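Predicting holo structure, S-adenosylmethionine bound.
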Amino acid sequence: MFDEVAARYDRTNDVLSLGQDRRWRRAVVEALDMRPGEKLLDMAAGTGTSTAPFTDAGVLAVPSDFSLGMLRTGRGRRPDLPFVAGDATRLPFADAAFDAVTISFGLRNVGDTAAALAEMRRVTRHGGRLVVCEFSHPTWGPWRRVYTEYLMRALPAVARRVSSSPDSYVYLAESIRAWPDQRELGELVAAAGWGEVAYRNLSGGIVALHRAVRV
Ligand SMILES: C[S@@+](CC[C@H](N)C(=O)[O-])C[C@H]1O[C@@H](n2cnc3c(N)ncnc32)[C@H](O)[C@@H]1O
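Done. C-alpha cells:
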C-alpha cells in the first residue's frame, strides 16, 4: 500500500492535516532533545520526512522502512539521508546501537505493535529514549465529534482528489478509529519493557506523543 502512495505521500499529508503535520514534527524534535554526537533511529520513516528535521539540525539520524517504494522516493528527494531497508518487527541493527529511537505515524501500521516496541527497545542503549508520534483520540467530546466527522467523511473525499490511492485513506481513517487511546498505548509501551512512560496531546489529542526511557 505504501509503495503505491509514495510519490504523492508528503503532499497529501500536508493537505489532509491542514498543514498541522509540520507542527507535530517540530514537537517530536523537541521531545527527543538530541545532544551532539547522539545517534537516532527513525523507524517506519517512509520517505524520510520525519527524519529530515533531525538531519537538518546536525543529528546523526538513520531512517528505516520496509517499503522500497517509500525508500526510493525518499532517496530521490534526500540523497543525503542514510536510508536502511528494515522491518520494524525484526530490526537489522545490533543491540543498544542507538541513543534514541522514534517512530512517527508508523506504529499503527506495523502488524505486530508489541514486537515493534520490543525491537525498538532492543536497539536502544540503557537510559536511551523513545518517542512515538501517532494519531490518537481527541479528549474533548465536541471536538472529538467534529474530528470523527472529518475523518470518516471529509478525509476520504479530499483524498479522492489529491491522492494516487484514495482507498489507502479510507484505511487511514479506519485504522485511526481502531487504534488504542492515549492511556492504552502507554500501557502497551510499558508492557514492552520501557520505563518512565508519559504522553502529551497535540491538537487536542488528534495526535499524541508518547515518551519512554530504556530501562
Ligand atoms: C504513514 S507512513 C509514516 C512515514 C514517516 N514516518 C512520516 O512521518 O511521514 C508509515 C510507514 O510505516 C511503514 N511500515 C509499516 N509497517 C512497517 C514495518 N513492519 N516495518 C517497517 N516499516 C513499516 C510503511 O512502509 C510506511 O512508510
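The longest strand covers residues 124-135.
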